[in-house]
Amino acid sequence: MLFDVRGRRKRVVQVVYLGLAILFGASLVFFGTGSGVNGGLFDAFTGGGGGSSSVFTDQYNKARERAQVAPRSPAAQTAVVRASYNLAASSEGSDQQTGALTDKGQAAITAAAAAWERYLRLKPKTLDAGSAQFAALAYGALQDFPSAAKAQRVAATERPSANSWFQLADFYYRAGNVKAGDKAAAESLRRTPADQRNTVRDLIKTSKKDGAQTAKQITAARKAARKQGQKGTSAFGPLPGTGATGASGATP
What we know:
Distance between the termini: 27 Å
CATH superfamily: Tetratricopeptide repeat domain
Order of helices and strands: HHHHHHHHHHHEE
Strand content: under 5%
Structural class: mainly alpha
Number of helices: 11
Helix content: 55-70%
Largest sheet: 2 strands, antiparallel
CATH architecture: Alpha Horseshoe
Number of domains: 1
């Protein structure tokens, strides 16, 4: 993932969205899961197989309307999570060449995280693994890696696989939780066929290295913001969950 270090303030943290798509898209292909995640996760990386971006906007608007009519419906909230993420990944939500989120994509990715939080507050008996995966990626795009790890742990627990545990390890590393990352990585290796484990070890090694760099950059940005007396912001823009632009401050 690349950071926007030019110092310009954004309504949410500016990220190069393609970084997440490449990271998780590659792992999905390697681990052989394809679009098996409920809701078409892999399709989200490719803009839904070339579909019109207006389709994603329509789905997003309909999902939001449904959630407003039935705010106590867990299914309505997970629909917002999925529709929001798909819109952010479409050509209308992110630049298909650079992967950078547009204003609409930034709003959609924040809406995805907020809808997941509302879903959890409803305390459904069984958590939706597919929606948890979308939420984890949304939090990742917002650089809220501790929350990304929590959501991804739901996905890995409810639908365990070598891939889901690998993704969990990656989020833990980016959150700076190396111990938890190593445990998740070990579980990923345990679930990986023996003839593929060397390749997965290399992927984990790269993930751990990149994660440490990401955690270091985020920590440095927060320290810089505190020194400037601007708590709640970073060199990349407002931090997730702070003020009206954070995930917890988004409206349905």
